[in-house]
Amino acid sequence: MINRALEQSILRSLNYFPIVGILGPRQVGKTTLARKLMNELSKPAVYYDLELIEDFQTISQNTTWVLENNIDKTIVIDEVQRLLPLFPQLRALVDRKREVARFILLGSASPDFLQKSSESLAGRIAYHELSPILRSEAESAFIPQVTHWHRGGFPDALLAPDNDYWYQWQQNFIKTYVEQDLSQLGINATIPVINNFLRMISHLHGSLLNYATISNSLGMANPTVKRYIEILEQAYLVRRLEPWFVNVSKRIVKSPKIYIRDSGNLHFLTNVRHYEDLIMHPIAGASWEGYVIEQIIPLLDPAIRPYFYRTSNGAEMDLVLVDGVTPVVSIEIKLSLAPALKRGSTESVADLKTMNNYVVTPNGGNAAVRPQWIHCNIHELIGHLKTLKMIAEPA
Fold first, then answer.
1. Taking the model in full, what pTM does it have?
2. AAA+ ATPase domain: from which residue to which, for each copy (predicted)?
3. What is the pLDDT of residue 225?
């Protein structure tokens, strides 16, 4: 089993909050993590999976009995978004007996989970988002970077015996999302249209998001395209990275950039079956950029916000980490092993006034390439961000 960095943060929340919610896409490892947490709690725990008919009926038909007869245990409820009316009852029980670690709620691909739980359980619940396995986690399990980058971080995909099994897993994963989850979340298009939509987003990976371009290409209305992308974001499939507005005297690009969050999903959607195909594919540079971004953002302290920066004059920075209203770190991401900086990068740093600037390549080296610029790899970058206290250390 690959140890997850989020585990210690969740345990810390369980030492204070009566309810902890673990969010993330299906198959990301929420159930595995929850079962491990159950063994580390100071009191007994019981587990219910609402995708199982017998568990769903037990909870839905005998809610009061189940909850009150397990009052001295931690109750773990998986796929809790399938029974949202449960939340007011959880609130009542917590208010009647407020103590730590009463409930662990696991949910996937459901904006209703966040909305309903926030309304009913405000002040009683702490949320944690479980991402696919990160490079720092895969590294501790001796999984090569090239394997992790190509296959992505979903556990069963990453650990597949060979690339044929990996491809089959991805095929089944996307099929399930397209045919079940996305339609339930409000994407009402036909299956071929949804598949085309996902593949078009994959080809825009790392680019500025232009809703009109997608609308015209697929024959959809602009509002429909925006709503579908919002749903994909809520389902943890895509990320919109917002631009940082720092200097009103400059013409700043104000459109977000869009990324497929998991590199394995991206490579399946662009039909990249092997790593050897990836490094020769036109998507390689953008894929590496998105991959690095997704290894950093889940680790950031909640006070640190990620952005990109671009002006109409060509100044550009792939990732800018902002503390409050102050840009602190600029990160240029390059697939090339040569850490040479372009004028757009140096101009961006001059605009942003960041003192900590990094060029991230696959091999790195932790070498200064010019004043206030360090050439590093992902592992080395995480070390620098920990030193700057931009990554929260486990308690």
1. 0.94
2. 16-132
3. 95
Rounded distance between C-alpha atoms, residue 330 and residue 351, angstroms: 11
The span from the CA of 388 to the CA of 395, in Å, is: 17
Three-state secondary structure call for residue 302: coil
pLDDT of residue 112: 72
> Same domain, yes or no, for 75 and 11?
yes
Residue 189 lies in a domain: yes
Token digits for 26? 């299906």
The number of angstroms, rounded, from the C-alpha of 242 to the middle of its chain's C-alpha atoms is: 15
Pair of tokens at residue 290: 């998105």
Same-domain pairing of 123 and 141: no
Q: Is residue 68 part of a domain?
A: yes
Kindly report, residue by residue over 288-338, the tens digit of the pLDDT. 999 999 999 999 999 999 999 998 888 899 999 999 999 999 999 999 877
The more confident residue out of 261 and 113 is 261
Q: pLDDT at position 98, please?
A: 86
Inside any domain, residue 294: no
**Residue 342 domain boundaries:** 300-395
Asked if 21 and 120 sit in the same domain, the reply is yes
pLDDT above 60 for 262:
yes
- Report the pLDDT averaged over residues 69-84: 92
Instruction: Tokens for 394, please give them.
Output: 């486990």
Choose between 215 and 180: higher pLDDT. 215
State whether 187 and 95 are in the same domain. Answer: no
Could you give the C-alpha distances from 208 to 111, 167, 169, 357, in angstroms and in order? Answer: 25, 28, 29, 23
In whole angstroms, what separates CA 219 from the centre of its chain? Answer: 29
> Which DSSP string do the residues of 155-197 spell out, in sequence order?
HHHHT-SSHHHHHHHHHHHHHHIIIIIHHHHT--S-HHHHHHH
Measure the CA–CA gap between 214 and 228, rounded to whole angstroms. 11
